[in-house]
Amino acid sequence: MRILTLGLALAASLALAGCANQQYDNTRQIGGGLLGAGAGGLAGAALAKNSSSSTRAAATGLGAVLGLVVGSEIGRYMDEQDRQQSYSAWNQATRAPVGQTVSWNNPRSGNYGSVVPVRDGYHQSGAYCREFQQTIVVGGRTERGFGTACQQPDGSWKTI
To answer: What are the boundaries of the signal sequence (predicted)?
Structure first.
């Protein structure tokens, strides 16, 4: 359950980091929550893909709820510059040596974070994959997550 929560936090933070500006806005918070619910539901279903249909349904529902909460909070406080810096750090971490911390900081908003590739290897499909640990501090609140991303044939990365 802890791995599911952390994985959802990472996926939601990557997918939803740009859903807000520095000032509070209900629309961005709602949008972040809805996108987070969708991403969380997909992540929950993917994590339980080899389980029974009732377990898969429960994981999808739990993922959607956790994604809603995380996405809403992140969408509430992160601005566009935070999102860009977070994405840039994640992108650098796809090429950084395993164990190297890639940090970002937005002095304007006070938000900051880091991404660390913690392990790499190959997926059963043959794709090169890396496991990441991410920490984001938004509005004084620390969120941590773990996730895995695999390199696609076109060179882009996809979180699995």
So the answer is: 1-17
Band of the pLDDT at 6, cuts 50, 70, 90?
A: very low
Q: How far apart are CA 108 and CA 115, in angstroms?
A: 20
- The model's pLDDT over 62-112, given as tens digits with 9 standing for 90+, comes to 666 666 566 655 555 677 888 889 889 999 999 999 999 999 999 988 999
Kindly report the three-state secondary structure assignment for every residue of the chain: CHHHHHHHHHHHHHHHCCCCCCCCCHHHHHHHHHHHHHHHHHHHHHHCCCCCHHHHHHHHHHHHHHHHHHHHHHHHHCCHHHHHHHHHHHHHHCCCCCCCCEEEEECCCCEEEEEEEEEEEECCCCCEEEEEEEEEEECCEEEEEEEEEEECCCCCEEEC
Give the Cα separation of 79 and 32 in Å (integer): 12
Bridge partners (DSSP) listed for residue 142? 137
> End-to-end distance of the chain based on CA atoms, in angstroms?
17
